[in-house]
Design a protein that fits this description.
The structure is a homodimer. By secondary structure, chain A is an alpha+beta fold. In chain A, α1 packs across α3. Chain A is globular, with a radius of gyration of 17 Å. At the A-B interface, α4 and β5 of A face α4 and β5 of B. β5 of chain A pairs antiparallel with β5 of chain B. Chain A binds a DNA duplex through α1 and α3.
Chain lengths: 136, 136
DNA sequence: TACACAATGTTATAATATAACAATATTTAA
DNA sequence: TTAAATATTGTTATATTATAACATTGTGTA
C-alpha cells in the first residue's frame, strides 16, 4: 500500500477522534463541545482539550462541520465532503434543527462568485435562518 | 411626529449604544466585545454586560453585524441595511481583514434560493474565506 | 533501533457570554 | 399630568466556550 504523505487523511481516525465522531454521528443534530465531553466521559475522555483536539482534526478532515452561529458541531451529511471548505446549512430558529444543504447549483454559484475586486473564494460558510416545516 | 410602535428603530440610540457604535465605526475592522469594553472604559462603561447589551440592540437595528466565525462585530458598510438579516463578508485568513460584500446579484440569488423542500430563507449569513490582495 | 511525528493526558487559565436583581429613565396612554 | 408600561442602566456573580503549556505515550518508517 502506498502511504507517502497521507498520514492524516480520511481512513485513519485515532481513538479519541473515533469516540467524538461516533457521538456526533449518533446525534442527528449539532452538539456542543461540552455536551460531547459530558457524553463521552464513560469512554475515558476527561478534559475539554481532548474533545477540542478531536473536533479540530475532524473538521480538517471534513468529517464534521462547525455551525458557527451556534458554536456546535454536526456530522457531514454529504458523503462526498473530504475537506471542510464549502458548507451551507439551514437552521430553524424555533427548534434549532440544522440541515446541511447540498445543492450543486448553490455550490457552483458560490464557488464562482467574484467580489468587486474580481476576487474568488474557494472556501465559504453559509447559514440560512428560518422556520422548519414542523415549526411553521 | 407620528410615533406608534417605532420606539426601537434606527434614529434613536441610547447613551451606551452610541458609545459602542462610535467605537466600532472608528475601527475599520471587526472588534471583539472585550476589546470594545477595554476601549470604552474611559466613557464610563465598566462591565461586559453593558457592552453585550448594546451590541445586541445594534445588531437588531442592523447598525452592526456579527462575524460569527470570529466572534467579532463590524459596522454595517451598506448604508441601506436597516435590519441584520442578509449579510455576506469576505475574510482574509492571513491578516483577518473583513469586508462586507454588497452584490445585488448575490443577495438576489440567496434571497430566492430554495432548498430541496422548496423552503426559502429571508435571513442568512455568508462568510467567504481567502487571502486579500495585500496578502496574496 | 532510533527518529519523526501524531496523539494523548493533565492542570491551569483565557476568552466569550449570560443570569439575576435592583434602580432609573423614557414613552405611552388614560 | 400622572400612572403604567417599557427600555435602559448598573452591578455582581457565574456560565460557557476555547486555548496555553508541558510532559508522556504511541505509531510508522528510515
Amino acid at each position: 500500500m502506498v502511504k507517502s504523505n497521507m498520514s492524516q487523511k480520511q481512513e485513519h481516525l485515532s481513538k479519541n477522534q473515533k469516540i467524538v465522531l461516533d457521538m456526533i454521528e449518533k446525534s442527528n443534530q449539532p452538539m456542543k463541545a461540552y455536551s460531547i465531553l459530558f457524553n463521552v466521559q464513560k469512554k475515558g475522555i476527561k478534559a475539554p482539550l481532548q474533545v477540542y483536539r478531536a473536533l479540530d482534526k475532524l473538521v480538517e478532515m471534513g468529517k464534521i462541520h462547525k455551525i458557527e452561529s451556534r458554536n456546535a458541531f454536526i456530522a457531514c451529511q454529504n458523503s462526498s465532503c473530504q475537506v471542510a471548505k464549502a458548507t451551507a446549512f439551514s437552521i430553524c430558529e424555533m427548534c434549532e434543527k440544522v440541515t446541511e444543504i447540498s445543492s450543486s447549483g448553490l455550490s457552483k454559484y458560490l464557488a464562482s462568485f467574484k467580489d468587486k475586486d474580481g476576487m474568488k473564494y474557494s472556501k465559504y460558510n453559509l447559514e440560512f435562518f428560518g422556520l422548519c416545516k414542523k415549526c411553521r
